[in-house]
Amino acid sequence: MTETPQENTASHDPKRPSKLLEFMSTGWADRPRPRTGAQEASPLRAERRARLAAQFPGEVLVVPSGGHKVRANDTDFRFRPGSDFTWLVGSKEPDAVLVIDAKGEGTLYQAPAWTRETPAFFTDRHGEFWVGPRPSLDDVAIELAVPTRPLEEIEKLRGTKARVLQGYDGKAAELFETAEDADQELARWLGEARLIKDEWEVAQLQAAVDATIKGFEDVARELPRAVETSERWAEGVFGLRARVEGNDVGYGSICAAGAHACVLHWTDNDGPVREGELILLDMGVEGHELYTADITRTLPVGGSWTPRQREVYDLVYRSQEAALAECRPGNPFLAPHDAAMKVLAEGLEALGIVASAEEVLAVDDKRYSRWTIHGVSHMLGLDVHDCAAARDELYREGTLQPGHVLTIEPGLYFQPDDLLVPEDLRGTGIRIEDDVLITDDGHRNLSAALPRDPDGVERWMAALAESTQQR
Ligand SMILES: [Mn+2]
Q: What distance in angstroms lies between residue 284's CA and the mean position of ligand 1's atoms?
């Protein structure tokens, strides 16, 4: 974005004589661009920008979208704009930058539509002939309800003192005079402001959850194909739903059959799926507005539990019920976690794995965590682990507020080589995860439509198997 933009070409691109370059700039008709009008969320984002400006009066604030990330050589990962930028602006263009000036006015700097006056539209690998057209800045200004300027004009701001959201765009960041503490305050404010979801955001999360539930149905129907192949079949089937109904998966799908379920973030997904075993599926669709669901179900591959599987599953289910019962405003964020851990520790005692639940639950003991490992909740939104920059006192050490959306996801993991658990339970991992909105008087489970009680799971799987046979 400084000086003349470097044309982005690859070593195997053909030579282009000047005769060709001149020829390519002629003979094109005017192309009408579809006008979409202002987006539904644009007024909400304008209001968020005003809140941000009011928080840092008289200061310049810079929030970049981020750019392409290299996958290998000259191929990039699919671009996904940063979450804070999305919350404030909603443009999906790489290398865009929101600048709020000292008067509190926001301007979006981003690359303008390609013209045919220079050859870049067909020679540059980010050009219109390679990746499709870019919207015009006038159209973007209407759609997003924010003034726009060509990206190269941001150069005029070089040397300005500003707070910059760091970590997204080094080229944009180096234009400004910044201070680390001030920048961190900006990141923290954004993380904390995003803790409370408005109605529109809740609707986006519900849409992501609904698509995710359809994806779980797809995978449950196709489990016989996963048995024939591998866990990858489940990952692929869910990925299809995520791409068709949303933007993508919100995180790498965890499709963990058998003992792989004891690997918390198993994303290799290349193992066998066997009848009689369990498969843990932790998957979420990221919707078109980039809000993501985060749901886990642990299913019996053949459609019914063995008595022993059901015993452990039921324990995790009861711990989740205890956690859900604590989901109401004013309760500590950790209340659902503590309630779930109490049930799990008592269950570990009943299974003969710990001698005394009371003893291991003591704050200076916590030996039960060998089998529960992780926390029961994290915030959910544009990021699967949302609001990570918020201060502890407003998040982990804070209280639940109406508008919080969080996961409730207790689990039990008996590693295959754990000599302290009964032999028949080794290699069993179970997690159940739902997405919960805190309301004025309690909570709403956004993923309640996906069965999770042990009988309900069997009935749901049987109904899906039957409907598959009828097709
Ligand atoms: Mn989660």
A: 9
Residues 306, 276 contacting (CB under 8 angstroms): yes
Please provide the DSSP assignment of 132-184 as one string: -PPPPHHHHHHHHTS-EEEGGGGGGGTT-B-EE-TTS-HHHHTTSB--HHHHH
Q: How far is the CA of 376 from the centre of ligand 1 (A)?
A: 8
| Distances from the Cα of 39 to the Cα of 81, 140, 326, 469, 471, angstroms | 17, 10, 37, 43, 39
Which tens digit of pLDDT belongs to each residue from 391-421?
A: 999 999 999 999 999 999 999 999 999 999 9
Q: Give the CATH number, domain containing residue 120.
A: 3.40.350.10
**What CATH number is given to the structural domain containing 416?**
3.90.230.10
CA-based R_g, the chain, Å: 26
- CA–CA distance, 384 with 407 (Å, rounded to integer): 9
- Residues 233-251 pLDDT 10s: 999 999 999 999 999 999 9
Residues in the chain: 471
Rounded distance from Cα 396 to ligand 1 centre (Å): 15
β-partners of residue 443 are: 438
Among 193, 210, 241, identify where a domain stops.
193
Task: Tell me the CA–centroid distance for residue 75 and ligand 1, in Å.
Answer: 30
Distance 433 CA to ligand 1 centre (A): 7
What is the span of the domain harbouring residue 173?
36-193
Partners of 63 in beta bridges: 98
Lowest mean pLDDT among 113-117, 303-307, 334-338, 377-381: 113-117
Query: What Cα–Cα distance (Å) separates residue 155 from each residue in 4, 118, 146, 272?
Result: 12, 21, 19, 54
CA distance 431 to 443: 21
